[in-house]
């Protein structure tokens, strides 16, 4: 019996790994240009820092706008179709990026092609990331939601972390057009892998309306958005904070945050099964607050690095733990829409935290962004405390 159980668990892990690899391919494509795209638009094409920011942001705008539509597509036709369409969108992004590099002598045309590619990339992200989670849940069952979302998150952040330095090296060796060529290669690899996975059929029965789905997940989404502010300020301002203090080791702080995040995610499913999603989220938010306060008030770089690690460990359970609670309130016919809408709260939070925290940093110094994060996470904790009282609904 033990051998049979171990075999089942091994097959389950391999099945999940094959699905989250789709997410990994997608986020490698997203991470590749992050270190070089702003400089390419600013200096290479000569459009300045404002257009560099617009070019980066175009992807996230497309992702946010398309989330709910992608969810409906997953629910109606099954997630494999969405994954195929997503990797076609990644391939289109790669082709447009190649074309942009080839016509760099005509800067306006090159920028237009690059912007179109970024929009395609954003739609591809929405399609693949939402559908991969839905696909895995369809194959493995709703009881595995926490593990699926946790592994998917590791694939997401791991893909970006590995791709950004690789993209910088690639551009230095072969030029910007290499971004497009490798993106096309990743799209082909994703399509080939998706073709080997068993399909999950769409649900023909009519579920509840999108408005009802949103109303059921909104409290969890708002709590997620507030908690994500802590993540946003660490990612955006740790390097500037260390530089302002005259400290070395900003990269170690970011690494500590990322390693703690991934370490907690690996063992998260058992913790949620034992303690429950909302109680675990409550404890995690307290840990995130402690980490952010340690960063903001750090007397030395060592304390700041420890604070970053605590913040990463505290933030790690929030998306899967709250997502599991939210999905439990949604009919299976609306799972894709619910995942898409739930993810929008994270997208919007990460997109808005940087500018708001930047204004505070400009006026009050580089401690202010972390104190903003503390305040937002405290609000999230208060909201989750109220949800805990009504968790049986």
UniProtKB/TrEMBL annotation:
The stretch of residues making up the signal peptide is none
Q: Which InterPro entries match?
A: MFS, MFS_dom, MFS_trans_sf, MFS_Transporters, MFS_YhhS-like
Membrane topology value: Multi-pass membrane protein
Question: Which of UniProt's keywords are assigned here?
Answer: Cell inner membrane, Cell membrane, Membrane, Transmembrane, Transmembrane helix, Transport
Give every Major facilitator superfamily (MFS) profile domain span.
178-393
- Give the main localization category: membrane
Q: Does this entry carry the keyword Cell membrane?
A: yes
List localization entries: Cell inner membrane; Cell membrane
Report TM segments: 12-37, 43-62, 83-103, 109-137, 149-170, 176-196, 217-243, 249-268, 280-298, 304-324, 336-360, 366-387
> Which PROSITE patterns did the record assign?
MFS
**What does the similarity note say?**
Belongs to the major facilitator superfamily. YhhS family.
What is this protein identified as?
Uncharacterized MFS-type transporter PY649_14160
To which species is this protein native? Rhizobium mayense
Tell me the organism's taxonomic lineage.
Bacteria, Pseudomonadati, Pseudomonadota, Alphaproteobacteria, Hyphomicrobiales
